[in-house]
Design goal:
alpha/beta; Elongation Factor Tu (Ef-tu), domain 3; Rossmann fold; ten-stranded mixed beta sheet; seven-stranded mixed beta sheet; about 20% strand; AAA+ ATPase domain-containing protein; SF1_C_Upf1; DNA2/NAM7_AAA_11; helicase
């Protein structure tokens, strides 16, 4: 090895006895060339596995053999503890390798405070140590300076320890405690808490987290680190030992500094807090302006799944109630104003439903509530007030307020369910990251591989280079990671890969992992988790769109259930069936059907049970025990005897001289197969036997036995070729048997039922048949039959939706829901993944963010922006100034992305942001246009022109088209939401032309105004169904995240405004010029993008449209069509 070149040092060869993994007793002596003297040795050492580390050892004259030396590592996390340094010409330095899983960094303004409990102080007072002396001794014993030097006690009064050693930064080893340590005393806080264990050479200290301070509750000697070495972690930063009063002072100072930084008047979070106050006040003012109406009473009626309420009013209806389908609340008191003049609404609001009708003449108001609440949730019965609903707004703002308070107050909690973390399950540095984009404390650990063989197999393909890098940053983030995904770059693929990789890593480590996948909108949530399964279970979907049917709200779970059922059916089809199990299942099915078809009060139930029993004995002969067979025959014989006696008592036949004929008739009637399943065996044979008997003896018996219609019915069923017979023949046969048995109530003019003697016979037969099912199953051999039963049982169990939802909730690892609805969950998560994060305002993003220990934001700030209340923004600007209000217009995603990608602002921080740069959706020509106009040419096409060629005999085969419809053909309409009929006509014509040539294509029609979209929807609905079902119409706000083969964009604006000033430009094109919306509009098409509009009006003032227009005029990449 080449020695480290340090001038003035004598070069010596030092032998280092390096203990590599002391816990496995792999002691090895290695020799390296070192420059060494009495005070210092440094050099390079190559370990057996090829790793190379640099060692620096400083020898202190007072204490030479207890300090740490850092190995400057290359992809390796370890420190080396100097065990001993020998004298002589040859230096023997014995080191102990101390590897660690991860490192937690602690900044100076938030040090880790370790308080000495009363028990620890009393125990050491016996040694004559004061609290301050004990704190100093523990610092020397458990801590080292961050540069590797020892913290040593002065040997005399004239010697002092350097301040940098006393005050930090420090190093210390610890492990997580998942249960109280051995010997912890009942009644101490630690006996029910969670914390960490610090390790020194000979002793360990148990610390419990309590109100921001780790309290030292026990110090004990240990014999070995063998059991804990594999779980060791490193603390690096500022650590203080002390007593309660001293630490409280430090904590108060640092806490104040942190809180001031988070809540200063011009801070980021404080600004959003002020916005929330404005929004709350504006919501209340709107409700107050709508007004209230008093009612005397109401009546309610159940209507479907909901309630219809009719209120009797005692005050006139305010104007604000008229002509509007308002959502209403009810309360016992009316709203009023507080001392500051702000509106104050009663706290006991109840949902009163959506207003359907209001009649001033009759003083009636009718609402519909789309669910049935419990009694306590109904409006007050008498003398209440109706007002604009605030419950939804209040709940939304309360969720935002709670999240904002949590992060602004720096709230930290310990992870529940016995899985403690040093800073709890939520991210302690979240407020600091949101304010500054930097974290003074962050945890590092050896990086896990982003892509594994198992992940590739699960995804069915490999990830691109960009996707792998994005996954690596997200997977290994210490706190927050951002993934910017321009259109079509595979953001959803990265999300799915991250979830699967997290679960794979958790299984490797034997850890429990909870992951939340959330987004601003329901569609984005459903898209992110579509088809996602972990350990065979789908994600737990929280909430859902209101107004949807139950099946639609839980469609992913329903799909999972149906897929599992199909899988079970496939397994069952492939398994060889056990004959006895098949017989048992068939008999069990027929018994279920019997119990469903027959009421035991019905006199026909006994003959049917007898027929089923006799058939069972016949078809399962040899598989039923002799005793069971005899028992069944005995009860059937009793039933036959009873039927003969009952028939004899009936008056359907006149008295005859031959009683034997009646007995023979009753016996034949008992043999008739009046169940379809039984008829298939020997039903025709038995029917023909009865027909022939009546032909010979009917005249002699007389009565119904000689009826021609009965004879014809028996002959028809006996001669029927089909089995079972057709319905008309079958009904005539069954009715004839009932008449002959005297059971037809209509025929006999009276109602009949089983007698008290018949019911026990029927019940006994059913009991015996149930026992035969059990006997057959017991006789069946184990093996494939047992597997089949287990599969069948699972198939039936998952059909219970409520039970399956509980199973997913209890055993699943993935939860999914919108940012707002996830607030109803009390769970805290290891990872929170937020899709479409750039669309959500910070107050909504905070709701899931405060629940996560690590956070991954996925989105694109170049697409649709966050939605804010315009009036709140205006008031904010008027109060705080335009410069401060500009903060509101920037999404949190964009704010963090710009900080995380700025090298100067991100210096000394881990890499937290990445942009995906390869798009797979669009034709390369469309992709280049989007990349040039919105992404600084930083996005490349991942598919070829051939792959995205539209193949239509139209538009010269080009992927870009401009249909130029000048103002002379008709301009835009007046009003705020504009229309242009000539564009509607042109767009519909082009859509029909395209689908005529390519009926398999999907078409998206984007209009920039809702009224234009409404006109287009009306026209599209008039097309044949096979065309209209291929077309989706909407405004740009509803199209983010979607893609189509062809997109037609209706620009609408067409006017004579041509001035260049900003106001004129706004009058000319309106919000058509907003880059975010243009980015979405131009990036939805896979193969063909068509712009329909007045080029003279919209192209010059909008760079992106102008670039597209020029490409179409040029003819190389686009096609120009004039509608002049």
């Amino acid at each position: 090895m080449n020695p480290t070149d340090v001038p003035g040092r004598e070069e010596r060869t030092a032998t280092l006895r390096v203990i590599l993994g002391e816990m496995t007793d792999q002691d090895r002596s290695l020799t390296a060339r070192f420059r060494a003297d009495e005070q210092r040795a440094e050099g390079t050492l190559q370990l057996p596995d090829g790793r190379e580390v640099m060692l620096v050892a400083e020898r202190d004259n007072t204490q030479a053999n207890e300090f740490l030396v850092e190995a400057r590592r290359y992809g390796f996390q370890a420190l080396y503890e100097v065990v001993s340094v020998s004298g002589g010409d040859r230096k023997w330095i014995t080191l102990r390798q101390r590897a660690y899983l991860s490192c937690i960094y602690l900044p100076e303004d938030t040090p880790l405070l370790i308080d000495l409990s009363d028990d620890v102080l009393r125990e050491h007072q016996l040694d004559g140590l004061s609290p301050d002396a004990l704190a100093g001794q523990l610092a020397v014993e458990f801590l080292a300076a961050q540069d590797g030097r020892a913290i040593t006690r002065p040997q005399s009064a004239r010697m002092r320890v350097p301040d940098d050693l006393l005050h930090g930064p420090h190093l210390a080893f610890f492990t997580l405690l998942e249960r109280p340590g051995v010997g912890s005393r009942p009644g101490t806080p630690f006996s029910t808490g969670s914390g960490i264990r610090l390790w020194a050479r000979r002793r360990a200290a148990d610390l419990m987290l309590e109100e921001g301070i780790l309290r030292c509750v026990r110090i004990f000697e240990h014999r070995t680190l063998r059991e804990d070495a594999a779980r060791m972690r490193l603390l690096q930063g500022y650590i203080r030992f002390g007593t309660g009063e001293h630490l409280a002072r430090i904590r108060s100072q640092t806490r104040k500094a942190v809180l001031e930084s988070l809540t200063r008047p011009h801070s980021y979070l404080a600004g959003w807090g002020y916005y929330l106050e404005l929004e709350r006040r504006l919501v209340f003012e709107e409700a107050a302006n709508v007004g209230t109406v008093r009612y005397h009473s109401y009546k309610l009626d159940v209507d479907g799944d909901g309630l219809r309420l009719e209120f009797k009013l005692t005050t006139p209806l305010p104007e604000g109630f008229l002509g509007r389908a308002l959502d209403l609340d009810a309360a016992a008191e009316a709203p009023d104003r507080d001392d500051s003049g702000h509106w104050r609404f009663p706290p006991d609001l109840k949902r009163a439903g959506t207003m359907e009708r209001a009649d001033r003449q009759t003083s009636r108001l009718i609402t519909y509530l789309d669910y049935q609440p419990d009694f306590e949730s109904l409006p007050p019965e008498q003398n209440g007030f109706l007002m604009l609903s605030l419950i939804g707004d209040e709940r939304r703002m309360e969720r935002r307020s709670a999240a904002l308070e949590t992060v602004s107050g720096g709230a930290v909690s310990v992870r529940p369910k016995g899985d403690p973390r040093l800073v709890g399950s939520r991210l302690a540095t979240l407020g600091e990251l949101l304010e500054t984009g930097r974290a003074g404390a962050f945890e590092t650990r050896s990086r896990d591989a982003a892509v594994t063989t198992a992940l590739r197999e699960h995804l069915g393909r490999d990830l691109t280079r960009d996707q792998r890098e994005a996954l690596d940053i997200a997977l290994n983030t210490p706190d927050i990671a951002l993934i910017q995904g321009p259109p079509g770059t595979g953001k959803t693929t990265v999300i799915r890969a991250l979830v699967l990789r997290l679960m794979e890593r958790a299984q490797e480590r034997g850890e429990q992992m909870r992951v939340l996948v959330t987004s601003y909108q329901h569609d984005a949530v459903d898209n992110a988790i579509q088809g996602l399964e972990v350990n065979g279970l789908p994600p737990q979907r929280v909430g859902g769109k209101s107004g949807l049917a139950h099946e639609e709200r839980h469609r992913q779970l329903y799909k999972w259930i149906e897929d599992r059922k199909k899988y079970c059916d496939g397994v069952l089809e492939q398994l060889p069936d056990d004959p006895l199990r098949a017989r048992a299942r068939e008999l069990a099915h027929r018994l279920d059907r019997y119990r469903f078809d027959w009421d035991l009060q019905d006199p026909r139930a006994l003959p049917a049970a007898v027929a089923l029993a006799e058939e069972t004995l016949l078809t399962n002969a040899g598989h039923i025990s002799l005793s069971r067979t005899e028992a069944v025959r005995d009860v059937c014989q009793k039933a036959h005897t009873h039927s003969i006696q009952a028939a004899a008592a009936l008056s359907v036949f006149p008295d005859s001289e031959d009683a034997n004929l009646k007995s023979r008739l009753n016996a034949l009637l008992a043999q008739q197969r009046v169940l379809v399943e039984a008829f298939a065996d020997d039903g025709q044979f038995q029917a023909d036997r009865l027909r022939r008997f009546l032909s010979r003896n009917g005249a002699y018996l007389g009565g119904v036995a000689d009826r021609e219609d009965i004879h014809n019915a028996l002959q028809a069923v006996a001669m029927q070729q089909d089995t079972p017979p057709d319905s008309e023949t079958w009904e005539a046969y069954v009715r004839s048997i009932r008449i002959l048995q005297g059971d037809d109530a209509e025929e006999n003019g009276e109602e009949t039922s089983q007698t008290t003697a018949e019911r026990p016979l029927t019940a006994t037969i059913l009991e015996q048949l149930d026992a035969i099912v059990d006997d057959l199953l017991d006789s069946a051999q184990a093996g494939y039959g047992a597997i089949a039963d287990a599969v069948q049982y699972f198939r039936e169990e998952i059909g219970d939706l409520a039970r399956t939802r509980r199973m997913v909730e209890e055993y699943g690892s993935i939860t999914a829901g919108t940012c707002q609805q996830i607030a109803e969950q009390a769970t805290e998560y290891d990872f929170v993944i937020i899709d479409e994060a750039a669309r959500a305002m910070p107050l909504d993003l905070l709701i899931p963010m405060v629940r996560g220990r690590r956070i991954v934001l996925v989105g694109d700030h170049q697409q649709l922006p966050q939605i804010l209340e315009d009036q709140a923004v205006q008031e904010y600007s008027a109060t705080k100034g335009v410069e401060d209000a500009a903060m509101l217009q920037q999404s949190l995603f964009q704010r963090l992305y710009e900080i995380f990608t700025d090298p100067k602002r991100n210096e000394g921080q881990p890499r937290r942001a990445f942009r995906l740069r390869t798009g797979f959706r669009m034709h390369p020509v469309i992709s280049r246009l989007v990349s040039e106009q919105f992404y600084d040419n930083d996005v490349e096409a991942g598919c070829s022109a051939d792959e995205r060629d539209h193949g239509l005999p139209l538009y010269g085969g080009k992927p870009l088209v401009w249909l130029d419809i000048p103002r002379s053909r008709g301009g835009e309409s007046r009003g705020q939401s504009k229309t242009r009929q000539v564009e509607v006509d042109a767009v519909v014509v082009e859509a029909e032309r395209i689908l005529k040539h390519a009926p398999q294509y999907t078409i998206g029609i984007i209009a920039y105004y809702e009224r234009q979209a409404a006109l287009l929807r009306t026209r599209i609905r008039e097309l044949p169904l096979e065309l209209s079902q291929k077309i989706e119409v909407g405004t740009v706000d509803s199209f983010q995240g979607k893609e189509f083969d062809v997109v037609l964009l209706s620009t609408v604006r067409s006017n004579g405004e041509r001035s260049d000033d900003e106001d004129a430009r706004r009058r000319r094109v309106g919000f058509l010029s907003l880059k975010n919306r243009l980015c979405v509009s131009l990036s939805r098409a896979r193969r063909l993008l068509i712009v329909c509009g007045d080029a003279e009006t919209v192209a010059p003032p909008i760079p992106a449209l102008d670039a597209l227009y020029r490409r179409c005029l040029g003819g190389e990449e686009g096609w120009y069509i004039s509608y002049a």
